[in-house]
Structures are given as C-alpha cells and as structure tokens.
Design a protein that fits this description.
heterodimer; A: 321 residues; mainly alpha; B: 341 residues; alpha/beta; six-stranded mixed sheet; five-stranded parallel sheet; 12 helices; disordered N terminus
Chain lengths: 321, 341
C-alpha cells in the first residue's frame, strides 16, 4: 500500500515539476477546464509524459520480475534478455527503411523485434549440453543485446541527421509519447500485466526447478511459454512508449523481493509499482538537473539505478532465494 | 561499412607546412618568397602558392569555393545541408560530391592540399565525424581552414569552445578576403565582400526602426524534444541583420541545445523557424513538414507564433556563417517583417 501511495505522489510531482511552474490549483483548473491558461502544458505535455512513465515503468518492472522468475537468474531483465534491444532495433529498421508513421506502427515492429530477439536468446541458450541454464541465458542475452545495440547505433549514427532524429531509440525518453500513443499502449500493457499476475503461482513452482514443479502438478513448458509472451508484451510496449530504458527492469524486482520476500504474488505487483515510481522520479530528476535542457529518462534511470544495484550487490541481497 | 587503411598520402607541401608561427595581427596575410600566410583560429595557415587541390566540407565551405571562382581547383565536396544557391548549381554539379563526410582515408585519397570546413567538428578529436586535428593534417602537407565565426579556442575542440565574440559578420568577410588571398583570387574576394556588404546593408535599411520580434529556431526531434539554436549560433547574427532577436540567445556555451516543448511554451516566441536539414536536394519547401509538425502540436496551440501563423519552414543551410548570409538575411527579413518588402 505504501508503494501505491508513493507512486501517486510521484505522479503528482511529475505533473507539477517542469519549466513552467504549475501549482496544484493550476492543475485542477487545467483538468477541469481545457481552456484554462496552463491546460496545454498539463494536458498535452505533463499528462502524457506522466502516463507514459507509469505505463513504461510498470511494464519494465513486471517484465523484469517475470524474467528473473522464469530464468531463475538474478541478472535477468528485459534488457539482459535482449527484449529492449530487439524492440528498439526493429523500430529503427522500420523507420529508416519503411518510414512508418509517427504512431501506432512502432508498437508492432517493437513486438516483432522483441519476439525475435528473445527467441534468438532462448535458441542460443538451449543449444549445447544442459539446456537453457540461467548462466547460458544471461550470456546469450548479453551477446544478442550487444549485437542489436551495435546494429541500432550503426544505423542511427550513419549521419548527423539520422542521429538527431533517432537518438530516442538509443536512449529512452518519456517526452515522445503523446496521449494517443499512451492510450494505444494501455490495452497491451494491461493484457501483459494480467498474464504476468496470473503466472505468480506457477513462477513460484518454477523456482523449485522443473522436476519439483512437475511433481506438484505444474507444467513448466506452458509456464515458460506464457512467461515469454508476458515479457515480450510488457517490455515491447514499454520500449514502444519510452524507447530502450535500462536498469529499471533489472533493479526493481530485487528491491521488491527485498521488501516482501520471494513470493511472486507480492513481488509482481510491487515490481510494477516500484518500476513506475523509479521511472517517474528519474524523469522528474531529468527535467530539473540541467535546466533549461532536459536529460532523457534513459540516462537518469541508469545513473540512479546503477548505485542502487551496486548497493544491493554489496548487501548480498541479489543471492537467489 | 568497411574502410581500408591504405596510406596514399603524398605530402607535397611538407616544407611549407613546417613554418613556425609568427605572431602578426590576427588576419595578416604575408605574401613573399616563402608563400602566403593567413591566421585562422589561432593557427598560421601557409601556402607556397595558390592551392590547386581544394577539398570543401559542409555547405558554407562548398558555397565559398564556388563564390571565389576556384571550383575548377576543387577535388571533392562533401555534406550539403540543402541545395546550393542557384548561382553555384552548375559549378557544384561538376564536382565530386559525397552526401556524407569522407573518412580520413577517403579524404587523403583525394590528395587535397587544402581543406575548407564550414563547421569545426570536422577536426574535433571528440567528434564522430572527425578527420583528425588540423595539426595532424598539416603534418601530411594538408592545410586547413575553419570558418572564423566557429573558431574553437584550440585545435581539436568544437562548438563548446567557440568564443561568442568571434561570431560576427566581420569574421565572415575576413574569411572571404583571407581565403581569396591564399587562393590567389583577391580581386574576386573583394567583389564578393562588397556584394555581401551591399545586400546586408540593404536588408538592415529595410528593417531599420521596426519592432524586433523574438524568433526561435527549432528542430523537432523524434523523441518529442527540440534542438534550439542558442546565442553562439550564427543564426543569432542573421536574425539581428534581419531586425529580429534570437529567443534563445541567452543559452551560451554551445550552438545547439536540447530543450523540452515546455521551454518553448514558456518563452512564447513571436516567430518560429524550423531548421530542416540535411540533404543536398532540399529546398525551402522540404522544410514545410517540420513547420506543420510544430503548427499541429497540440501543446503549442496557445503559442503566439502558432495562433498568428508565424511558424515558417526554414533550412539549416540558412543558419550558417558564409557567403549565403545575405540570402538568409533577405529571407528572414521577408518572413519577420513582411510589411517591409
């Protein structure tokens, strides 16, 4: 409950903080009356940005928690599994080759890229002896992610102009999403979240290992398939909305487990809340630190996330349950 | 893209290149037995005789060599932001042209003896576009020139090291004169400067006494943010000539700044110009989609410039220091002072 209150507070802050000072009274006036003075900033900039942060943050947090539960790997996360990288790469390819319109079209390319990247990671990890062990998944994911980000950079950095336009796909940001994008993304995210939450108990069982899971009636292959779908939908949507944002999906589930213990029934919703909280706060920080310039949320999330992760490592809390 | 590191360097001018710096006045050109020297961005540029293999990188440099009438000595041109001015179209069509900047190897393969760059990042050590510092090119017998309003404080630096005091139209004139002398075409250079001065004076006269609108020069980005031209960008001078002020002139230290849409809403400029770039085929009409993106951005619906229809397509090429300045100033004046045509 405390986390939900904090998320609400962060969303409130995200609506108020920015170049133009918006008071709570302005905010209420703008929401009540679209013709009010500050309503353009509130309705078309702060609101979509805040909604994008909530959606993308929750999606990344959930995707990370499912990914870590699925692979039984404390280093798993959407970015480590290549999902963000695949989504961003597909979007850049689509824009530079096909020239997809500014909205809508991206989401499908992001999904396709995420699916292909994750499929490649799992296929590579499954080859050889011992099947898809957590270590092999992490290594395959790191290799595929590095490859995809190199290819994305190769396309984006090809000249000044492309870089100016597409750097969003190298470093995530919440400024691109407008309300239609956010509204389009919401059903995907809701579906992914429902699926992820439904997998809470099977993921607990999977944590015991395939044999034990089978002995208590779970079906590991089905669980794995559904979990992959959930990760792709959640992280793919988050990337379509906010570009590739690292660290949130990796760090947030650890914080959630630290707070509630390993049971996924509690870890999953808390990861969604903490993900939204971290992304919103990172975005607010990015608006303030270098005024009047803005720092993309992908940068601030990494700057804030890395020390937290190191702290968790030092506290040895990343040891798998 | 694969790039082969095959050295094909013929240092023809090594001796001249090794001349020590002699502390004359900033733009002194010293003709004599040892060649001609002009000082550019704190570096003495010495040629034994007029360069015969000139490489021009970026729009301002390309238009400069055509304006000086040395097109037949140009061994390569690279990276146009838009179509060259009509009077240079024929000369430009006859050059070897690369839409991207060359690699260092590709540049040296053209065996130039002089490289003119319209922007400073060409020689910046930190830049992804760098061809190496000017000193490293001089060691290979290749002299170089950066347009003076973009002079970094030291070789290898870029936009972050521009002295705002150097961003003047006078420095454009002295570039034309200095390059004219180095290239052995002083008379032509003097005519170019006189023509520029006359056209710029005419624009200044046209807009004299008019109220000065605040103009934002912005480039929409894919992530919903904007890159705006700050104080040290030469467009500030062009706006000044055309009787307007840069709404972001207070942003110092670089030429371009990433800002969110809220910053533009907060400053509420009277006029918004886009900064459409970079293709050698672009004309003003190619800037229209960028302008339309700004006009239709719901967050900007309340902006004065949007409400009053003062959002115009504009080319990045018309922001730069160079022989294009009179054209750019005439264009801006006709946009911001339509009553003074």
């Amino acid at each position: 409950m405390g986390a939900a209150v904090l998320v609400a507070a962060a969303a409130w802050l995200s609506l108020l903080v920015g170049t133009q000072p918006i008071t709570p009274a302005d905010l209420v006036a703008a929401l009540a009356d679209p013709a009010a003075g500050s309503s353009a900033v509130v309705l078309h900039l702060r609101l979509p940005r805040t909604a994008a942060g909530l959606l993308a943050g929750a999606g990344l947090g959930l995707a990370g928690a499912v990914a870590q539960g699925l692979t039984r790997n404390p280093l798993a996360g959407p970015e480590v599994l290549g999902v963000n990288g695949g989504a961003a790469f597909a979007a850049v390819v689509a824009i530079s080759l096909v020239g997809v319109g500014p909205l809508g079209g991206y989401v499908w390319f992001c999904f396709a890229g995420a699916v292909l990247a994750l499929a490649a990671v799992l296929a590579i990890a499954t080859t050889g002896r011992g099947g898809a062990t957590p270590v092999k998944i992490a290594m395959a994911g790191a290799a595929v992610s590095a490859l995809l980000f190199s290819l994305t950079s190769a396309i984006v950095l090809r000249n000044h102009d492309l870089f100016e336009r597409f750097r969003f796909w190298l470093v995530g940001s919440l400024t691109r999403a407008d309300l239609p994008t956010v509204l389009q993304a919401t059903p995907f995210l809701a579906a992914g979240a429902v699926l992820a939450l439904a997998l809470a108990r099977p993921l607990d069982a999977a944590a015991l290992g395939d044999d034990t899971a089978r002995s208590i009636g779970a079906r590991p292959a089905v669980v794995r398939g559904l979990a992959v779908v959930a990760i792709v939908v959640l992280a793919g949507t988050a990337t379509a909305v906010a570009g590739p944002v690292g660290f949130v999906g990796l760090v947030v589930p650890h914080a959630a487990r630290m707070l509630t213990g390993p049971a996924h029934v509690r870890v999953l919703p808390l990861s969604a809340l903490l993900g939204a909280l971290v992304l919103l706060m990172a975005d607010v920080a990015g608006r303030v630190v270098l005024r009047p310039e803005e720092v993309q949320v992908g940068v601030t999330a990494a700057v804030l996330g890395a020390p937290v992760f190191l702290y968790l490592v030092r506290r040895r809390r990343v040891a798998w349950p | 893209m694969l790039r082969f590191a095959v050295p094909r360097i013929v240092p023809t001018l090594a001796a001249a290149a090794l001349l020590a710096a002699c502390g004359g006045p900033p733009s002194a050109v010293v003709p004599g037995g040892s060649g001609t020297t002009a000082r550019n961005c704190g570096i003495d540029v010495t040629v034994p005789g007029p360069p015969q293999r000139i490489y021009a990188a970026y729009q301002p440099a390309i238009e400069m060599v055509h304006a000086l009438g040395v097109s037949d000595r140009v061994v390569g041109t690279a990276y146009l932001d838009a179509q060259v001015l009509p009077e240079y179209a024929a000369a430009q069509a006859a050059t070897d042209y690369l839409p991207e900047l060359p690699s260092r190897e590709a540049l040296l393969a053209a065996n130039p003896d002089f490289v003119v760059s319209g922007f400073n990042d060409l020689f910046a050590t930190a830049g992804s576009e760098s061809l190496g510092t000017r000193a490293s090119l001089r060691d290979l017998g290749v002299q170089s020139w950066i347009f003076s309003p973009l002079c970094p404080s030291a070789d290898g630096m870029a936009d972050e090291a521009i002295d705002p005091a150097s961003v003047t139209i006078e420095n454009v004139y002295s570039d034309v004169r200095d390059l004219g002398r180095l290239f052995g075409v002083e008379d032509r250079a003097a005519r170019v400067v006189a023509d520029m001065q006359a056209r710029i004076a005419a624009v200044q006269q046209r807009v004299a006494g008019a109220s000065r609108p605040r103009v934002a020069v912005v480039r929409p980005q894919d992530d919903g943010t904007f890159r705006v031209a700050g104080g040290p960008d030469f467009v500030t001078r062009i706006l000044d000539i055309a009787g307007a002020d840069n709404a972001f002139a207070d942003l110092q230290g670089r030429r371009n700044f990433p800002v969110g849409p809220e910053e533009i809403v907060a400053r509420d400029p009277d006029v918004i110009l886009t900064s459409t770039c970079c293709d050698g085929s672009y004309t003003l009409s190619d800037a229209e989609p960028d302008a339309e993106r700004i006009r239709t951005n719901p967050a900007f619906a309340g902006l004065s410039a949007v409400r009053e229809g003062h959002v115009y397509g504009f080319l990045f090429a018309d922001r730069a220091a160079g022989v294009r300045v009179p054209h750019a100033a005439e264009l801006v004046a006709s946009l911001v002072h339509p009553d003074r045509r």
